[in-house]
Amino acid sequence: MPASPLAAVDLRDVSHSFGTLGVLGPLGLSVARGEFVALVGPSGCGKSTLLRLVAGLVAPTGGGIVVDGTPVTGPDPKRGMVFQQPALFPWLDIAANVRFGLDEQGVPKAEGNRRAADWLAAVDIADFAKALPATLSGGMAQRAALARALAPEPDLLLLDEPFGALDSLTRRDMQALLERVRQRTSATVILVTHDVEEALFLADRVVVLSPRPGRVVAEVAVPFDHPRDDALRLSPAFMEARGAVEAALAASRPSASQTDVSRRESELLPG
Ligand SMILES: Nc1ncnc2c1ncn2[C@@H]1O[C@H](COP(=O)(O)OP(=O)(O)OP(=O)(O)O)[C@@H](O)[C@H]1O
Question: How many A from CA of 49 to the centre of ligand 1?
Fold first, then answer.
């Protein structure tokens, strides 16, 4: 599969197995520079694995991944990642956590402080600069994790269910926040989520994966301009896009009646 000239991320015939368990692919996926793609699919279909492969934390057992023209062979500071659990360094205050990647890059101290303060303000936690992570709520800690990932100005931001552990109201606040901070960065974004509404609210394209081993079964373009606000969720066009993604998800699963038939057949089998 030839690389698209505009692709920031190119997955070429990628597959992955853990031992004998095939969890992903083979699949191809191209993400354009600056595009925001959301991945949805049934639990266990390999979404997190796909993100870890792109991050270079795991090597694929088949195919290859190219980011900005260079094959992925390991982690790179140009690829920021946010996980479901904030994973902040517990012994560093929030400002130092956000500054961490900048210190690693050798950014001078004064500039690092200024950029960290700027990002803390952008995610509305400037007042918590001196707090330790353990004293923050889940939502606040996740704001800090987002600021930490964005402060080094990554070319690619990988978000693995970043709001999955939050209550629904905090989750909506965080979606609005991510939509807002996205205007400050030109990073390409890949978001893994279980939440179809979240995917549609944030992304430019939603990619639907099949049950394990995950393969691309549908792609839905999200035609709404940015910045988006909450009213969008109630618009007929949004509901229509939601219906399209949910239909693709439902179509990719074995139907309930098929499952019932196979269960009944297995119940009838001797032994
Ligand atoms: N390190 C590992 N060793 C063995 N099996 C693994 C490992 N990591 C993941 N798996 C298995 O691979 C499959 C895919 O896992 P993965 O976390 O990528 O799926 P997912 O789509 O992100 O799931 P969920 O939506 O539930 O988070 C699962 O069956 C999981 O148990």
Answer: 6
Report which protein residue has its CA nearest ligand 1's atom 8: 49
Q: Which atom of ligand 1 is nearest to the CA of 19?
A: 4
Paired residues of 157 in beta bridges: 80, 189
Assigned domain for 129 exists: yes
Q: Identify whether the C-beta of residue 56 lies closer than 8 Å to the C-beta of residue 75.
A: yes
Hey, which residues does 18 pair with through a beta bridge? Answer: 21
> 113 and 88, same structural domain?
yes
Give a yes or no: residue 176 inside a domain. no
Return the structure tokens found at 128.
Answer: 């918590």
Answer yes or no: is the ipTM higher than 0.90. Answer: yes
102 and 197 belong to one structural domain: no
pLDDT, one tens digit per residue, over 114-166 is 999 999 999 999 999 999 999 999 999 999 999 999 999 999 999 999 999 99
Same domain as 138, residue 41: no
Q: Is 83 helix (H, G, I), strand (E, B) or coil?
A: coil
